[in-house]
Amino acid sequence: MAAPVQQMSPPLLVDLLPDRKHCVYTSCYCEENVWKLCDYVRTSNPSHLRNCYAVFISNDDRMIPLWFQKSASSLDGAVCWDYHVIFIAGTNEMTSRVYDLDTALPFPCKFLEYYTKAVRPNKFLQKQFHRSFRVVPAEVFLEHFASDRSHMLNEDKTWKSDPPPYPCIQTLESMNNIQDFISMESSQGWGQVLDDEEFVVMFQKCL
User: Fold this and answer.
1) Mean pLDDT in the chain?
2) Does pLDDT of 69 surpass 60?
3) One of 38, 100, 109, 196 is an active-site residue; which one?
4) pLDDT confidence of residue 5
5) For tag attachment on the chain, is the N or C end more exposed, with fewer CB atoms within 10 Å?
6) Can you tell me whether residue 159 is helix, strand or coil?
7) Of residues 38, 48, 84, 109, which has the active-site annotation?
8) What CATH number has the domain bearing residue 78?
9) pLDDT over 80 at 205, yes or no
10) Residue 144 catalytic?
11) pLDDT mean over 181-198
12) Residue 1 covered by a domain
């Protein structure tokens, strides 16, 4: 008699990133914070990088509400950003976790908990606030993302928020392409642009 086939449990992403307090963080520079998280995985757990994603959240009007943000006056109140970026490890075939250095939720947070509490379905929002999600594989994000931080300058060239202390992130091909990542136009930029239902399908399985 043949031995029964053993079912393999989905791989767990254990200790993928350090505690929140030990992560590189600059307020209002979520895209660079996530780039640093991707870079940390590339250095410390390179085999896991293929299951990691930078996710840009925005819309055509650059008005996207998120809940449970640390900058909110209350957890039940929404903060309206022009865009936000989070780090996700895992897919619907494995344990999915959201790493958001700006959230009041756990770090990491189970995907469905984060989606239910912090994002919430578009169907409950006015159409102008509907969000789309540009899901970029971490390897692609590390290879292509560049920002000269000019989007954080006021007209008088003062900073809207103080920049990170390290040099700007650039590539051999570009000094500044952040708008291609923030854009929810699927014909440009990198990764996949998903609506909220497609986004949940991609990452929904949480153990």
Assistant:
1) 90
2) yes
3) 100
4) 38
5) N
6) strand
7) 84
8) 3.10.620.10
9) no
10) no
11) 96
12) no
